[in-house]
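Sequence in, structure out. Go.
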Amino acid sequence: MKKIVTLRPEWHSDDVAKGKIKVVMTGSAAAPASFQPHIHSKDERRNLKLRAKNPDDELEIVIVRDMWLTGFDAPSLHTMYVDKPMQSAGLMQTIARVNRRFKDKPGGLIVDYIGLFQSLQDALAVYSPWPKPMHLWHPDQKQKRSVMTSDCSPTCGQPC
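Output:
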């Protein structure tokens, strides 16, 4: 998050109720010092979840560590960046977070940093109602870097 805030300092606020970007994670006083600003009380995490679900809130980017993968429903959510191995039903539930219908949202975008493509194809073969898995865009590394480094606002309506 430090790198993002360095590039976009106006997105950050130390106040949990303000800012366009937040980190949601659990932890304790024994966690590394770099984690401490992001370890919130249960009530603060609940409020962050409410903010994330509210399409009128200024909160646009939430970096989540081991939370909100299943059972979290925010239809306005558009993009998810995945950086941990997942498979089967857990993978399907996780990617479904961005595939909720909402107003004129065209669909969700999953940015895969670790190569979940085959796991996703396998999960679709098991859990998809269609007899043949759907076609998925699978960019090469150069395309991934281009998307990751594009100078785009999270609200521009295009993949960032």
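Check: Strands lie at 21-24, 61-64, 79-82, 109-112. DSSP finds five helices and four strands in the chain.
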